[in-house]
Amino acid sequence: MGTLVTSNDGQLQRPSKDALRMAINDCVSRLEPLLQSLNKAVRDSIHTSPELAYEEQSAHNTICDLMEKLGYQVTRHAYGLDTAFEVLSGSEGRTVNFNAEYDALPEIGHACGHNLIATASVTGFIATSYVLKTFGIAGRVQLLGTPAEEDGGGKIDLLNAGAYEKVDVSLMMHPMSEDDYLDKGALGCAGFSNVASYSVHGTYHGVSAHAGATPWEGVNALDALVSAYVNISMLRQQILPSERIHGAIVEAPKPSSNAIPALTKTEYTARSPTIRGAKELAGRIRQCMEAGALATGCKLDVEEKAGYADLRVNEPLCSSFQQHIAANGIQVLKSSGPVAAATDQGNVSYVKPALHAIIGIPVEDGCKNHTPGFTKAAGTSIAFDRAVLSGKAMAMTALDVLMDDTFYEQVKQITSGIMGVKSDSHLNHGELRTSCVFSSQDALKAEQDHSAKNYQSLPIVFSRAQGASVWDPEGRHYLDFHAASTALNHGHCHPKLVATLVDQASRLTLTSRAFHNDIYPQFARYVTGLFGYDRVLPSSTGAEASETAIKVARKWAYKVKGVPENQAIVFGAAGNHHGRTLATIALASDNMSRDNYGPLDQNISCTIPGTNRHIEYNNKAALDEAFEAAGFNLAAFIVEPIQGDAGVIVADDDYLRHARSLCDKHNVLLICDEIQTGIGRTGKFLGHYWSGIRPDMVLLGKTMTGGMYPFSCVLGDDAVMLTVEPGTHGSTYGGNPLGAAVAMRALQVVEEENLAKNAERLGCVMRDGLKEMQAQTNIIETVRGRGLLNAVVIDQSKTNGHTGIRLCELMKEKGLLLKSSRTGIIRISPPLVITVEEIHWSLRIMKESIDELMHLPSAS
């Protein structure tokens, strides 16, 4: 955007972050007395006379008076709501919204700290407006007074009235008890998951009659309501731990034992981690109400209303806020686990990129929001100070949005089109459009009925994901420590990769190799330069890359080495996994993948030529014997730096150096399969870097695009790669511009975000925690791994007949997803974007699950 100032030499340049921060501090310092008065006035008006939904006249007028005093043009009673207001500032460009809440709770006033929300948003708006004017920055800010958050959904009404139509990003904060975060070394979080709500209102119409004289002429509306109440109370026993049902009788007959009641009314609210889950639960409540009407003969008028949606966490906005509030001396988590609260900012987050940060304030006696103790806490000077600091941080985030085009593209992709929600759509009283139409049960049944049965998947369905977090269709949240067998090093739906995918998909996706495109050549130059090879040969999957490498090795053996035609040998080590195509299963020692798929090529194997003995992995003597037995016809040895599917077997660094030496001695190609170990997983960019060798060919796949699109490749030098002539090998999708664009960006992100270093550091934390757990229990036989590719081996002889699979089921119930082999090897490979807090949480869940497993009745 137009973010330019004139320097001393007459050149136009952007103001630095430090300059922007100094300007914000200067502005807020000068206005702090006014902000203190505003905070006190809003606090006092709420406390002395709590202003409930759409009745916030005093707070509305207090804020509007201040903004007018500062010279802003204020629209009072905006968008048809008596206690809403709008203030706009700035020029054409992107628009950032600050939401100000100020409504109260009956009898306990600002027990949710809405006075602090108003203060923070006013601070953020004024500071951003000041910087825009001072530096001549293009962009607009909106301060929106949003009434009725506690009850009524003011933001939903404002959405439907068009208040957010021209908004690009929405920002706000909310205070909570700092006790919830101090044990995590923080004072809040930039983003969090919460609950959504859906309400059901029922009115029963009966027929009045004298209860003593002619009761048979009556139809009892109170009986219908009581029946529904009992039904719903029983339903409460069958809902998920993350769900809630609460309700009230809002109209009942005047006390009279002589009259059959003819009219009763009840209202219930369903809460669930997602709006879809809340709607489904509301449907069950409705059925309970209908059962009451059927049982009594009453007529039922029922109305379902969508309430507050779950928050869509926007990771780029969270990262920006986390960085900027840290500069103000407050450390917050980037994201936090579920919070048992609902907010109409969730509805905003479905159609606009949104931030809803939480800032902790000191409280007495561990009190929580919506209590008299929190009322007192929200009125303290330190609470005011933290609201102001939050406003400053939100101002800096707003400037990131307005000034940084790349950052804004990342921000908007989180909402635009990812979750099946159109960024320009309007919510009809919270009714949300989502792409998910199957429940978990529906999905499992459909796959069982219609899909080939080549996988035995765990019975869990993913519906959406972000980072290391996944949710099922019912809204249950899990941490994914499997990461699609290391295909998700960047985490699910990394915003930078999503932005690249969407951008390239809107321009060009496929040309085949019959024509050139402008993206693949950039990728080829980048990837060969990054890894130090002459050529790259692109394909789609890891197995295809393995097949390609075998073909290239044979071609090289015949054309360069001079091996007699059709005599070339390629072998690997026992326990390998290079794919499930015919050539790759010929390499394998796993009978399950080989049986009934023969005949297999005898010159592609993992056995010592002329024997039935396997070439044992990480065994130098076995490798010596295999090379000698194969002789001149040996074309290539293909090996994984760590055998992932075999149970995370880490090769000694000297083993790979020995293999390199043997290949040099016998003029054999060394092929390193980095499909699982590459792209930062082991703590270095490629797994073989630990041994200091240089293979003749390197295979990359799986996480090549961060899980966004199938893409793989083979890297090698001219002497090997140019043996493949035009027309002798190819793939329609090999080198397609969509995959190439995302792959190039994914490799850049590994460097930009130091993901390999993160893997090395957090891998040590993980293994230390696992070894400590091993010392505390007798069922962990082995802990092994490197970086964030690790495994524990469960001694299933000591688990009372229970298996590693059963242990993983217990962990799943607690929100942690891992997978065990039949032999009790549990592989632990979380995304490389995992945090140390999530590592510690996972270790606690593992320990709790092991303790639970050991107390289960014997399964023998």
Give a verbal description of the structure:
The protein has 860 residues and is an alpha/beta fold. It folds into four domains: 5-189 and 315-336 and 343-415, Zn peptidases (Aminopeptidase, 3-Layer(aba) Sandwich), CATH 3.40.630.10; 196-306, Alpha-Beta Plaits; 440-492 and 755-854, Alpha-Beta Complex (Aspartate Aminotransferase, domain 1), CATH 3.90.1150.10; 521-752, Aspartate Aminotransferase, domain 2, CATH 3.40.640.10. It contains 26 helices and 30 strands. Helix 3 packs across helix 11 (381-403), helix 11 (381-403) packs across helix 12 (405-415) and helix 15 packs antiparallel against helix 23. It is an enzyme of class 2 (transferase).
Mean pLDDT: 89
How many domains would you count in the coordinates?
A: 4
Return Rg in Å.
Answer: 32 Å
End-to-end separation in angstroms reads 68 Å
Q: Judging from the principal axes of the Cα atoms, what is the shape?
A: globular
Percent helix range = 25-40%
CATH topology of the largest domain: Aminopeptidase
Strand order of the largest sheet: 3-4-6-5-7-13-8
Q: Name the CATH superfamily classification of the largest domain.
A: Zn peptidases
